[in-house]
């Protein structure tokens, strides 16, 4: 199964040039069963990466362009009166898919953003008092622009905590940007992209992570990081228990892609920043951007002995 994940990474890297590390982190996030937030300035390939991930993993996906006038019903669905049956019929929204691409998610109002909370945590939605299960596997891949840009709303902490990872692509280096300028159009490359695996294979690969061993010393190391985030005075609030569980699960997925059946501290370190930075707000800053926390998370990691 994991060989197919590597095959997916290879073809994604042909589209997202020079971002092999971020592509690997994104695949680790989805392999671990988590939702992915991609935060960066416009035009660096956030949406293209989200499309490439869904297509390469063979998952059905829908895209929602989040705007200030988007309503929760536009995402979840709505019940409409049917004269033939003299009753209301539920019409599913775009959230009923395996991958929901929420493009520029922080341009929607908090009311619409909150419509995703139940779906992201429980893989179900409730409308008109009826709870409906979502397809499996179910992932939200969301992109957002920096919160200082015009027309953005800061994501609430409760929603940020539901994203297993937050990535930033950044500008490409000179060689990668030159390859982009000389190469084929990325939209055309996306249309030609073939799935490297099937949904049931993704589910099987996720289930196999349970066999990846985590020693007590490794858990002690993770717990030390969690306590440090709460006690070192760098952040307004520390990591939640959900964040700690996410850190271990992401480390398992990283170890699996490295070909190991056990987790080592370096696996935890490889995923620590993308798993925790968006959840931790610096004590001396009101910004909700993960970009503002990454240096502090790296500082915290260096302070914890292996």
Any overview of this molecule?
- The chain is of the alpha/beta class.
- It has a domain at 212-306: Helicase, Ruva Protein, domain 3, CATH 1.10.8.
- The protein has 14 helices and nine strands.
- It has helices spanning 2-15, 20-31, 46-56, 72-76, 110-113, 117-122, 157-160, 174-182, 186-191, 199-208, 216-231, 241-257, 265-276, 294-303; strands at residues 35-39, 61-65, 77-82, 87-92, 99-103, 124-127, 130-133, 139-144, 163-167.
- Helix 2 packs across helix 12 (241-257).
- The longest helix has 17 residues, at 241-257.
- The model has no long low-confidence stretch (mean pLDDT 86).
Descriptors for this entry?
about 300 residues; alpha/beta; Helicase, Ruva Protein, domain 3; five-stranded parallel sheet; 9 strands
Uncertain stretches: none
**How confident overall, as mean pLDDT?**
86
CATH superfamily (homologous) name of one domain? Magnesium chelatase subunit I, C-Terminal domain
Structural class: alpha/beta
Instruction: Let me know the number of strands.
Output: 9
Distance between the termini: 31 Å
The sequence of SSEs as H and E is HHEHEHEEEHHEEEHEHHHHHHH
Which outline best applies? globular
Question: Which helices and strands, and how do they pair?
Answer:
Blueprint: H1 2-15, H2 20-31, E1 35-39, H3 46-56, E2 61-65, H4 72-76, E3 77-82, E4 87-92, E5 99-103, H5 110-113, H6 117-122, E6 124-127, E7 130-133, E8 139-144, H7 157-160, E9 163-167, H8 174-182, H9 186-191, H10 199-208, H11 216-231, H12 241-257, H13 265-276, H14 294-303
Parallel strand pairs: 1-8, 1-9, 2-5, 5-8
Antiparallel strand pairs: 3-4, 6-7
Helix pairs in contact: 1-2, 1-3, 2-12, 11-12, 12-13, 13-14
């Amino acid at each position: 199964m994991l060989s197919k994940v590597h095959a997916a990474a290879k073809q994604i890297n042909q589209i997202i040039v020079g971002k092999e590390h971020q592509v690997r982190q994104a695949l680790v996030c989805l392999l671990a069963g988590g939702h992915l937030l991609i935060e960066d300035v416009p035009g660096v390939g956030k949406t293209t990466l989200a499309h490439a991930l869904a297509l390469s993993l063979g998952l059905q996906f829908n895209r929602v362009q989040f705007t200030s006038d988007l309503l929760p019903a536009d995402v979840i669905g709505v019940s409409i009166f049917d004269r033939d049956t003299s009753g209301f019929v539920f019409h599913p929204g775009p959230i009923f898919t395996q991958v929901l691409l929420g493009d520029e998610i922080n341009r929607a109002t908090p009311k619409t953003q909150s419509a995703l909370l139940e779906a992201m945590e429980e893989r179900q939605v409730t409308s008109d008092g009826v709870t409906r299960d979502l397809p499996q596997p179910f992932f939200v891949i969301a992109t957002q622009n920096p919160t200082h840009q015009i027309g953005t709303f800061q994501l609430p902490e409760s929603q940020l905590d539901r994203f297993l990872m937050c990535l930033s692509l950044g500008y490409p280096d000179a060689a990668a940007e030159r390859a982009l300028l000389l190469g084929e159009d990325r939209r055309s490359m996306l249309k030609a992209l073939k799935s490297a695996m099937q949904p049931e294979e993704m589910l099987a690969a996720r289930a196999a992570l349970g066999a990846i061993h985590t020693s007590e010393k490794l858990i002690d190391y993770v717990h030390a990081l969690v306590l440090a985030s709460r006690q070192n005075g760098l952040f307004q609030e520390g990591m939640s228990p959900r964040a700690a569980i996410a850190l271990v699960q992401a480390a398992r997925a990283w170890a699996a892609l490295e070909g190991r059946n056990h987790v080592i501290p370096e696996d935890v370190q490889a995923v620590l920043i993308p798993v925790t930075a968006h959840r931790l707000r610096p004590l001396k800053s009101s910004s909700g951007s993960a970009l503002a926390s990454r240096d502090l998370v790296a500082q915290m990691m260096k302070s914890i002995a292996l």
